[in-house]
Q: What sequence folds into this?
């Protein structure tokens, strides 16, 4: 189910000419170049970004403007990246984050 | 260490207005930092036309105001760092900035500017009910950002909590983006926002349940996403009335329960803050938007959540005062400019919504120490 808002009564037609590919949990998905990673995930109906440290509960988009950190994921090996304010780049590797997203020492 | 005449933290309407006004009054070497990917703050999700007077761009859409401000900032040579958050703030105005690099990484830099304007805006309030952390429960502003800026739906079937102007406007905009608004729920006995906005959603067939709140959200959808929302009636003491529950199928819940100032940076400096019922914890400032720390100014929702026009006017006040402090304009010139801005600000703080804010502002500014 594609959930993009391609045509809009006020904003007009959305330019989706520059599509790239990113990898999410091993699966390749399309993304608009430069859109927030989170938006590309939502467009594929992916809502969960991470699981909490103590109770392993799912979390997803909550504030959308870099304040709450519920959308943190592992991006190109770096944990705790806020996907709502991080642009998608060709070939990016994104993983669902469990807990702190780092290996136990 | 890096230095600047003025560092503005936050590239929303308040921060941009402060930078533009300072530059117009002669301040050079201005830097605006913002943690987001794009400047303009929340203006770019305001696709509706603004209310108010002609001086306040009534009838102009927020997005168009944002474009105009960015153009002006560019023409004035104002430098903007995006993907760049101020993550630390030490004594004597030293800012630690996580500077975004072109390759997507961040670099830590330190800066000691001569003056600072803190315009970090606000964040949405949360309402806690059983299941409020379920994926699919989000701020109304978050949903608005997704549809209007990122052009992607946050979900299909949405329950909105709150009938303030944000709740009503975002409900309508969700429909414009092709989402289905299942219902709007309001704890108060009456609708909070303007009747004109409520009529628009009502005419579109969206039921509004006043004296109701969300009792529980179930997360039995895919990956634990929202699947069901149960609302419950409230009595005149705002207590739930057993047996009045209604359950709706929905995959998204949006919370429009007001905003609170983002004042982390204010708290990291030796700046006096005060609590008031209209705004929450806010920095004490005077009519120049100066805080109790010399050289540090505040503007916009950081000083108490209002709306974009007041944020811009407060930003202008701060910009003029920075130019005065740095000696680019005289005290009298600065006062003249500020008097005009204050006239417009008072105009904005009238009516049923504005009056409460006007009073709260007087109290907040009354705490400023007199020398």
A:
């Amino acid at each position: 189910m594609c959930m993009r808002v391609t045509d809009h009564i006020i904003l007009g037609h959305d330019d989706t000419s520059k599509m790239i590919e990113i990898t999410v949990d091993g699966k390749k998905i399309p993304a608009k170049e430069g859109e927030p990673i989170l938006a590309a995930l939502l467009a594929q109906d992916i809502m969960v970004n991470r699981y909490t440290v103590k109770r392993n509960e799912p979390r997803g988009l909550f504030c959308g403007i870099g304040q709450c950190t519920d959308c943190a994921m592992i991006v190109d090996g770096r944990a705790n990246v806020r996907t709502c304010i991080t642009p998608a780049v060709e070939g990016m590797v994104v993983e669902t984050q469990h807990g702190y997203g780092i290996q136990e020492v | 260490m890096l230095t600047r005449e003025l560092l503005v933290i936050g590239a929303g309407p308040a921060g941009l207005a402060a930078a533009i006004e300072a530059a117009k009054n002669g301040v050079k070497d201005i830097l605006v930092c913002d943690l987001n990917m794009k400047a303009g703050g929340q203006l770019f999700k305001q696709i509706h036309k603004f209310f108010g007077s002609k001086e306040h761009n009534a009838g102009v859409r927020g997005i168009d105001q944002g474009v105009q401000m960015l153009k002006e900032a560019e023409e004035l040579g104002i430098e903007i760092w995006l993907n760049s958050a101020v993550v630390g703030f030490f004594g004597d105005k030293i800012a630690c900035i996580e500077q975004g690099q072109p390759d997507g990484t961040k670099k830590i830099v330190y800066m000691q500017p001569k003056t600072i304007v803190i315009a970090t805006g606000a964040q949405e309030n949360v309402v806690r009910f059983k299941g409020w952390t379920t994926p699919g429960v989000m701020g109304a502003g978050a949903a608005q950002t997704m549809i209007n800026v990122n052009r992607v739906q946050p979900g299909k079937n949405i329950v909105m909590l709150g009938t303030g102007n944000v709740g009503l406007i975002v409900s309508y905009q969700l429909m414009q983006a092709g989402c289905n608004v299942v219902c709007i729920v309001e704890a108060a006995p009456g609708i909070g926002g303007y009747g004109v906005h409520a009529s628009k959603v009502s005419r579109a067939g969206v039921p509004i349940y006043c004296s109701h709140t969300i009792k529980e959200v179930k997360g039995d959808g895919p990956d634990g996403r929202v699947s069901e929302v149960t609302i419950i009636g409230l009595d005149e003491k705002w207590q739930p009335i057993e047996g009045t529950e209604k359950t709706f199928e929905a995959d998204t819940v949006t919370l429009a329960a007001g905003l609170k100032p983002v004042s982390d940076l204010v708290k990291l400096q030796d700046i006096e803050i005060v609590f008031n019922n209209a705004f929450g914890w806010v920095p004490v400032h005077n009519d120049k938007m100066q805080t109790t720390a010399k050289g540090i100014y505040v503007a916009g929702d950081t000083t108490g959540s209002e709306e974009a026009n007041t944020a811009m006017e407060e930003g202008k006040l701060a910009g003029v005062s920075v130019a005065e402090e740095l000696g680019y304009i005289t005290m009298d010139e600065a006062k003249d400019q500020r008097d005009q801005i204050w006239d417009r600000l008072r105009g904005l703080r009238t009516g049923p919504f504005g009056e409460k804010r006007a009073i709260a502002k007087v109290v907040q500014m009354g705490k400023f120490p007199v020398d």
Q: What stands out?
A: Residues 19 and 32 of chain A are 5 Å apart (CA to CA). Chain A has a mean pLDDT of 92.
